[in-house]
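Researcher: Batch entry, complex prediction.
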Amino acid sequence: MAEEFKRIKRELVAKGHIIDYYHDTMQIPNGNVAVWDFIKHNGAAAMVAVRDDGKLLMVRQYRNALERETLEIPAGGLNGPDEPTDLAAARELEEETGYRCEHPEFLMSIRTTVAFCDEKIDIYVARNLIPSRQHLDEDEFINVEAYSVEELVEMIYEGKLQDSKTVGAILAYARKYGK
Amino acid sequence: MAEEFKRIKRELVAKGHIIDYYHDTMQIPNGNVAVWDFIKHNGAAAMVAVRDDGKLLMVRQYRNALERETLEIPAGGLNGPDEPTDLAAARELEEETGYRCEHPEFLMSIRTTVAFCDEKIDIYVARNLIPSRQHLDEDEFINVEAYSVEELVEMIYEGKLQDSKTVGAILAYARKYGK
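Model: Structure tokens for the complex:
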């Protein structure tokens, strides 16, 4: 099936702050030609950070795209496409929450929105958190909170927690570790 | 916290096929001004389609953004921002798999990638599937497959199934219904 789609041309429409926007000219298997959207993203990493009492560290921040605050697991874009994602996840954990960790364990990878974007997020689990200090980016303003897995799962079904990496990560962690 | 961020300007950079790309000029709480990316999406709907034998209907299709095939739950964009998402999920199920359903049950909503995009996907569960016929869009080429929940969960941890709506939906369905 894959061989029948052919990309004839990829044109940069605009360079952005964290993404670039392209128009892809596609040859469709039925012979037609169509122009599809493509958003290029460098990739990201995220961390399920487990405190000794079993609660997870969560970050609350304002998201301009949704015009509201969200509750998410700590996460952020890679510092360039070659940054190892376990280091990036640990870096974002420390920057956003003020805790560091030594041996993040791989949980899974997700692709956020496959119809038009190549963004990949590698998600890890951190335990034995070590107090350090929060150091946010200039445009980051974040509150750190902690919840039990059961509380977070309830928030998912109640619609209070919708961010896809966070929904997937919490449910995948809960299932893997019997929470 | 939310009140301290202020959007000064939103400028359309380019109109796309399924998204529009904007530059948002933001006043940051520290007083700085920054230009952020914003991708506008009309929203989508997706269906966890459960056969009488408990297996879920999945669609395999080529995704240009990833340059490979993916395995996903049936899903698609809304026909305009006002289409009820339960009807959209049922429509996409029928178009993509050739099965229809009568009473889709709401499972949850996700936001695919909150750092730059407003895309929301409402996810439903369909049972008592009724054979109808597949009728794909002109540029859709899809294979329909069926897997047990256990097989799909395994694929998530093995990295064979990464699409965020699908990962979240399968784990949320599995937990809610004790699969």
